Amino acid sequence: MTPSTTGCVLPVRPELADEVPYGAPQLDVPVLLNVNENPYPPSEEVVASIAAAVADAARGLNRYPDREFRTLRTALAAYLAREAGVTGLDADHLWAANGSNEVMLHLLQAFGGPGRTALSFAPTYSMYPEYARDTNTGWVAGRREEDFTLDPDAAVRLLREVRPAVVLLPSPNNPTGTALPLETVRTLLAAARTTGPDGPDGAPTASVVVVDEAYAEFRRAGTPSALTLLAEHPHLAVTRTMSKAFGMAGARLGYLAAAPALVDALRVVRLPYHLSAVTQAVALAALAHTDALMAQVASLREERDGLVAWLAAQGLQVVPSDANFVLFGTFEARHEVWQQLLDRGVLIREVGPPGWLRVSVGTPEETRTFCEALADVLRGPGEGREA
Ligand SMILES: *Cc1c(COP(=O)(O)O)cnc(C)c1O
């Protein structure tokens, strides 16, 4: 219970009483490689389009926005069709919200709740347990293997035991950068048809399987998207975001593709008019520049592969990455390494299993600064790298 200055006590939910707001440190440092943003700001051409679209939207701000935002949903479907080579997606299969974080919250509001459980496999995205807590959904984290792969048989056993309403599978995973083989996702989807909580008639429902593809555009050649599995799986949702590859983290636009019946369940729980007219205008304007915005993705992928090779050449352990970040280690005293990099003007992320650190892929200049700083730290006195 939280005492206030006037002496009464706020009825904060007991499970929130000792919680603090979550978030990576937002520090003013020359080289920011800590939250997997795209290091390239939008071009002046994209900025001009967005500004014009926002001006247009501003003329109608006396009205509530289009609650169903079908124009944006259609544009997102077209983008996905093109990016992943899938057919048959239209506005009815798409949903969007203020970041894929809010999309995830909608999923848990619609399918989680008291007496229900969300399941993921650690190490996994650190926000998931927060959405579970906020929606009164139980939270279970199974384990990935030592090399961060997922054993499909063990995962299926856990699904049968936990009977989760929602299974959260980031792929490429954050913080490890590893993508799940499509075969693993298929195996889990097959089992998940009957591993959900009991339905009103006592028969088991499905677990909703969420493949969080926030980093999908960075996947290496030959790694397919789970979007290709949508047509056969009514209990699959594939989430995406404009925050990472698309370079629009500040716009707050996340989305998902799923069967229309699943999308309809999300439409029930969203706040009315949750997606502002300005957000819709910005996202549509940015999507019209897909080619330009995606041009950097190829160079970021190359930059990533170079960074993986450089880290390995320093004798460090490096996890193969399909994302725009790399997990490396291991350090006896990772916090000291993190701090010494920060002292040299480079902010990375202290996240993941003990001993590991995560660095986002920046511009070539930023990557060079990071490499020089890390080489310096590794050389320096008192560094605690494991033998
Ligand atoms: C960054 C990230 C997201 C995206 O969050 P937004 O709310 O869309 O900015 C989603 N999932 C994972 C695993 C992420 O790392």
Automatic annotation (TrEMBL):
Keywords: Amino-acid biosynthesis, Aminotransferase, Histidine biosynthesis, Pyridoxal phosphate, Transferase. The modification N6-(pyridoxal phosphate)lysine is found at residue 244. PROSITE patterns: AA_TRANSFER_CLASS_2. Residues 31-374 form the Aminotransferase class I/classII large domain. The keyword Transferase applies. It catalyses: L-histidinol phosphate + 2-oxoglutarate = 3-(imidazol-4-yl)-2-oxopropyl phosphate + L-glutamate. Pathway: Amino-acid biosynthesis; L-histidine biosynthesis; L-histidine from 5-phospho-alpha-D-ribose 1-diphosphate: step 7/9. GO terms for biological process: L-histidine biosynthetic process. One of its GO terms (molecular function) is histidinol-phosphate transaminase activity. CDD domains: AAT_like. Its cofactor is pyridoxal 5'-phosphate. NCBIfam families: hisC, PRK03317.1. Belongs to the class-II pyridoxal-phosphate-dependent aminotransferase family. Histidinol-phosphate aminotransferase subfamily. HAMAP family: HisC_aminotrans_2. This is Histidinol-phosphate aminotransferase.
